[in-house]
């Protein structure tokens, strides 16, 4: 990927945090790399070079600035509206696929040879999948060192390093210090601090992290989406925070997300993990859920070109559609939401969770908190009709057919899924029509241009705003909103509230 040197220099001089994550700045005279908004004195232009990713700067031999921590910036927003091979590969690396399956496993998931994948990813990011995964492991290790009392060897294991030596070498290369010194510097401990205490066997690891994002972020819209969609038993809204159970690669977890106050630049998250190796996967999924790698300035500027949306953007800047922590779960919940109110859909999902979802282990349970994880597709597909009460027979058949297709892999909604193929395979399921396909594409696949024009709730709001009262009329008007039509729909919801119990979604037939 070629970066415009002059434009990058201008961004660095402005120290504007909006550019954090778009690229990193390497200083040849010091051997360090920084985020564009680093508060340090701007180096001479002759000493600056620019890289599209932290992994590329590390590959070139630069170490991370310990003042601005460029490895902890929001991810690049250029992957948000894209579904090409490189974007899919980046999302899979962030989900930990390389750590669990290696580069060969990543290539197999994407249907490319390892060599071809390496070449394409390196051409755009300046580093291959292995280097991207190494940078991700280094960031996870720093987070664990700074926010937990795990021993250094446990941190190495949890971050995905194959050996303590590889862990030490990576930390020294990336941060120019040792893991122990990095921990002491973050905690303000004296040099004589003793070893970290051992965590009791069978207990859950507690980690608190701050997830950065590009401001603005509209907290009211975020809170409303989390609160109104909360499924009893799986999710809880209390004390201005959202809690839920996560089903992660190495075991279940409990997460609490606190809605940020206006002007904040981080979302505070508390995690209780069965296995700390799942930290990076958990934070990656939460970033996708909350859409924290978006560029709200670009989205808002584009939507504000429509006179009918301009005042809405000004009233609610930074509105983002809610994503997902589990795309298969979201798809099943969308089917449950056909032709019923949001409250009723939540009730049916809660019944499904109580009937088929596994209870959380005792170390993860809290009074008044989530009690179960959502059932996996295979568990839903194997259910009997008695396990799925309270829904029409046609919808029950659709739910079971979709669960079976998700369980056997014939429908892929994961981070590396092709949006085009996912839409086609979803549409082939009896009872799944355009509304379900586009709603799943928006929430589960993360396609920012997905457009469920037949959503009755959206149509009511659009009609009130003079944007059309039929799917055809709204679709015609929304052409100017592309590629951010999904954001426009959420903007309508955020600025024209209607009682949620009156929201009905279409019933779709084969």
Q: Could you characterize what this model shows?
A:
With 510 residues, the protein is an alpha+beta fold. The chain has 22 helices and 9 strands. The strands form 2 sheets. The chain has a 5-stranded antiparallel sheet. A 4-stranded mixed sheet has the order 3-1-2-4. Helix 13 packs across helix 22 (485-495) and helix 18 (419-427) runs antiparallel to helix 19. The longest helix has 19 residues, at 129-147. Residues 189-197 and 499-503 have low confidence and may be disordered.
Shape designation: globular
Structural class: alpha+beta
- If you average the pLDDT, what whole number results? 89
Strand content: 5-15%
- Major sheet: 5 strands, antiparallel
Q: Trace the largest sheet across and list its strands.
A: 5-9-8-7-6
| Rg, Å, rounded | 23 Å
The number of helical elements comes to 22
Instruction: Please report the distance between the alpha carbons of the first and last residues.
Output: 45 Å
In terms of per-residue confidence, which ranges show pLDDT below 50 for 5 or more consecutive residues?
A: 189-197, 499-503
Please bin the fraction of helical residues. 40-55%
How many β-strands, per DSSP? 9
